[in-house]
Design goal:
Elements (H helix, E strand, L loop, with lengths): L22 H15 L6 H39 L1 H26 L2 H10 L3 H27 L1 H7 L4 H32 L5 H24 L4 H26 L18 H28 L5 H38 L3 H28 L12 H33 L3 H26 L4 H24 L3 H15 L5 H16 L2 H19 L11
InterPro entries: MATE_euk (IPR045069), MATE_fam (IPR002528)
Subcellular location: Membrane
Protein name: Protein DETOXIFICATION
Amino acid sequence: MCNPKPSSPSSFLPSTKTHFINPNKTMDFHTDDQDDQLQRWPTLSEALQEIKAIGKISGPTAITGLVLYSRAMISMLFLGHLGELELAGGSLSIGFANITGYSVISGLAMGMEPICGQAYGAKQWKLLGLTLQRTVLLLLSTSIPISFMWLNMKRILLWCGQDEAISSRAHVFILFSIPDLFFLSLLHPLRIYLRTQNITLPLTYCSAISVLLHVPLNFLLVVHFKLGIAGVAIAMVWTNLNFFLFLFSFVYFSGVYKDSWVSPSMDCLRGWSSLLALAVPTCISVCLEWWWYEFMILLCGLLVNPKATIASMGILIQTTSLVYVFPSALSLGVSTRVGNELGANRPAKARISMIVSLVSAFALGLAACLFTTLMRHKWGRFFTNDAEILQLTATALPIVGLCELGNCPQTTGCGVLRGSARPTIGANINLGSFYLVGMPVAISMGFVVKMGFAGLWLGLLAAQGSCALLMLCVLCRTDWKVQIERARELTKASTTTLPVSSTLESITKEAPSKRDNLEGILCIKDECEQSASLETEPLISTTKTVH
């Protein structure tokens, strides 16, 4: 800490005797103070302040999520307008695209979140721009093999035993969706780049304008030009392109990019280890969760009356997608807050962000549970009038609500892990909970115990419950001092390829303020000694405590 308390002994010593100051003694004082801060509960004012800080990020993010959710519903309505075959083909194509493409692109993009969040907190602006360039290149290169897979989707579906007519419609839909991969490779990183700088309202405005244009685009392509299922796909791609263009225009004309702009060079092709070490586990974690729901749909096809169970599952997945908007927004907010505070060397505030967000997540889970339970006999009527589908939906909705009691804290906990650059832990928890706990429970309850449709959702409940418990155990055992050192290492490792001029520029800006006082000079010395030790010891062992 560069500014000791006025009552500290160093503030009373003459400047000519500064070489007698024992640096270890100063560290003892501040270490004890930091330990106290990392063990106490936040005060009411601190909690309210943190709720406000998270709300500034999560509020607009939730609105953006709802807007984008409405876009998906609009597309489904136009597919339904075209006919049952087009609706089935479009739904199958979207499911295939989610599994093989969108989940991968979304997961890889999230790898830049901890780097950008911590770089923003550490005021390493150039690292933001460099990470943006690297992530865009990563996603564009990943989109190429995915595109080739989509080109052969019909063969894959037929090999899996799908109906030929439905597979043909699905193939048409996904062929026209291929450009979407490349637009999302630009859009996802740009959204994260802005959000990690606490810029969220422009995202909401740009998404709202894009979705408002989505309806006339569908009318133009589907109704006027009679392009059918291809028109729905083109409209979805066009809407994402509009979203990107609006967002890019905001970044350019507002000048947000100026501090973090790095001219494209060979630097963006080097130093990928930090990004890949975060992007790959995050991608695995996202894919494991997304794929679970597709697996549930496949299991529904094996139950008695699969048409009703699959239709009910579709309604419930749409419901969970709607509810998921809120914990997801909270997760993105706390990820940004934790990353910013760790980058700014404020572990106590990062811990407060975690505590406040988890309490908020439990409140969201309780609200979702009450909503699904109270609406269980009415919610299905928004989608269908079929008595059997309504009965299945009403039976499963209370279980869905209980799932949200675990899902909200688990999703928020994943945000804390992303903000502190620990996605591998999240991937391991998801793998163990969903596929080693949830899947066996779902199969045994649904088919062995003969509970049918409700048994499958009990499997998800077991997965979400174990996931939440494991996540809470990991978060409660977090050593925030270690996370500070890891944040320094992450930003240092990611900036090793930055141009020397940018480093010198940042040093020259900070140097005058640090030369103004004795404490600043002493801090520069401490920081130099500390960074020198970090080069040989990447993580300082917390077992060595100073007394």
